Predict the structure.
Amino acid sequence: MSSTAQAQKKGFGATLWDYLTTVDHKKIAILYLVSGGFFFVVGGIEAMLIRIQLAVPANDFVSAGVYNQIMTMHGTTMIFLAAMPLLFAFMNAVVPLQIGARDVAFPFLNSLGFWLFFFGGVFLNLSWFLGGAPDAGWTSYASLAIASGGHGVDFYALGLQISGAGTLIAGINFLVTIINMRAPGMTYMRMPMFTWTTFIASALILFAFPPLTVGLFFLILDRMFFANFFAVEMGGNTIIWEHLFWIFGHPEVYILVLPAFGIFSEIFAIFSRKRLFGYSALVFATILIGFYGFMVWAHHMFTTGLGATANAIFAVATMAIAVPTGVKIFNWLLTIWGGNISFSTPMLYALGFIPSFVAGGVTGVMQAVAPLDYQLHDSYFIVAHFHYVIVGGVVLALLGGLHLYWPKMFGTMLSEKLGKITFALFFFGFHATFFIQHFLGLLGMPRRVYTFVGDQGWDLYNLISSVGAAFMALGVITLVINIIMTSVKNERVGNDPWEDGRTLEWAIPSPPPFYNFKQTPLVRGLDTYWIEKMEGNPEGMTYAEPIGDIHMPNNSIIPFIMSAGLFVAAFGALYFIDGDKAWPLPVLALGLLITLGSMAARSLKDDLGYHIHKEDLLKEGGQPGGH
Amino acid sequence: MDINKQYSAQTWPDHPETATLEGKNKFVGFWLFLGGETVLFATLFATYLALKDKGPSGMEITASQLFELPLVFIMTMLLLTSSLTSVYAMFHMRSYNFRAMQAWMAVTVLLGAAFLGFEIYEFNHYVHEFGFTYGHSAFSSAFYTLVGTHGLHVAIGLGWFILLMIRNAKRGLNLYNASKFYTISLYWHFIDVVWVFIFTVVYLMGVVG
């Protein structure tokens, strides 16, 4: 089992099997990137359909019912199946390297988390082919969701339940990895910002996802198993869903945006060739934002009628979040200030992020004013606001991060020229699409409508918005061309392709060997690789140990089977309520049996991993190492 | 970590559950998982309190009529005692006394199974005596979901105990399975703590409040 030599040229079947069974965080990162990228394109196509439908008044490009499905799936896909997995891709690719670890704490669970997300996402999207997608909005408010006919909302509830379990597992995994697996000398206050933000975002996942789990279970039980949580005539209460959803949903915003902040922090430091300004302030601002994230959920419910006291408390708490966020903005600005700036593609995204995100933050504070929110609620102003935060914050970070970490993940450099074109197209398209929507909202256009009557002053603005969306699509197409061209050219790069890397991931080859570090590094300070470079250490690392045997985990197909079991079971649960078929209950039982059986198999069979022997490591050449 | 390494009571570490990196990871990871579980149950409790005694207009069943404390008292005693016996099992795990550990775990399983038996009887009683089915009202849905989720945790815990006991019956203790035994006992305590809250919030406050 202990083959150190990475198989040379493998056949397609062998490669496929390798990815199905892998527990290597770097390969799981690629799996997240590819499937997250796929869902990003799916969600993007849905967005384009929305903008085509709304480009002109009284359009009949899609029907009202189909529009509701597209709109619901756009939001759900982008948040759960695109943004989160893409962030997980970078967390998996980078965080273990940044802390000097050979893998995550639970490699098996890492794989399980990915496959749960994958099967959940596939299940949700199969709704398109099996009688219609969910149509109650991505928030799926219970009164609407309970009344929704067909199986769309069932696909939503079951699909998100499966992928949510994967997210929770991934969150716990990163928490333990960062707590237990740091290399010697990597104290908490020497951790790179991306590791810090991953840490806090994972803590948010741990406490935010269970309420969603429970809420989704209520929805499943109400719709499929005769429960009455939201059935008002049976004593139920639909406001419970709103609370549970937003107790999850608001921290979710920070789960997305904190790692984005982390990526930008890395970019600013690298391309300003300066230490992050106010590192400790950034760390504490991150913690504070994570904490406040749980205190503000009811600002999504100002118009629900919770009363003036509740609204006032949540309004003030919401405004308070602007303080640590402002601290961060100034830290980034002062990192750039006086720096030796290199205008690379990632840096362009980071520079574009600051004004975009500030605009989204300012409209956020406007909505925190509860009386004003009564006017803005459910209008296009809200749509503009959260797209400024999510696209201007998260998506710009994902695109910037993709360019930044592409060489580390794949060993090749994306074309800078095409990268800058992508940025220009996307950035212009983004502002063209969403800036104008603020005014549409102020002019009274409600969100979630499938069409509108002309001559209300909305026609031109909607058209501009749609044209902007086309620019974003062109940007994404340019990116895809860039990726294909880079992969075909296949020009390999060295350890530190940006030449100004500061943290440990840039001290090892691109892509790193499967055991990451031949010798565990000794971390000597913040930006440890930078310190070594400045001292002229040719190896880029001080070692904490001599070369020795390395313990590695075994690959396993069990995570795949376990997740597939739940996927099968979900079909049983979904069709159970129809009552006209005999198979749903057996299928539900079979699926659960597959999952429980593979859990038992995992328990009963010892999985001790294997060792790469010292001799094999030395044979592989490379530097003999210090000491 | 060598799974075949033999220990004696003298060479066995004081904290075998965290003696390896895998054990340490499991220890921290499981505590965090219990943090998530706490939020999950908190959510169920909040929902229960919001929907307590709520039903279609004219519903006559209320918590104070439904619940009987003697039965719940017996269940509480059974589960609290099982928590104690699992502590004994961990005590013997740490002093490298495998047979005593297995014996106390068996007692724990029996007590847990008895608890589960009473719970099934209780639910059955409500359904047949009161017509208090799962779909009866918002109150019934919230009650069965909260208490049933706890019952499901008990059932999973029992299966977990039994699987571990059978799997390791022949080979005894080592540093590979010590952390597994420790984790299930941690889980078992958590289940017990949740029950204390169910006993208070659902039953005591239901009958008295």
Notes: The domain at 69-208 of chain B is CATH 1.20.120.80 (Four Helix Bundle (Hemerythrin (Met), subunit A)). The radius of gyration of chain B is 20 Å.
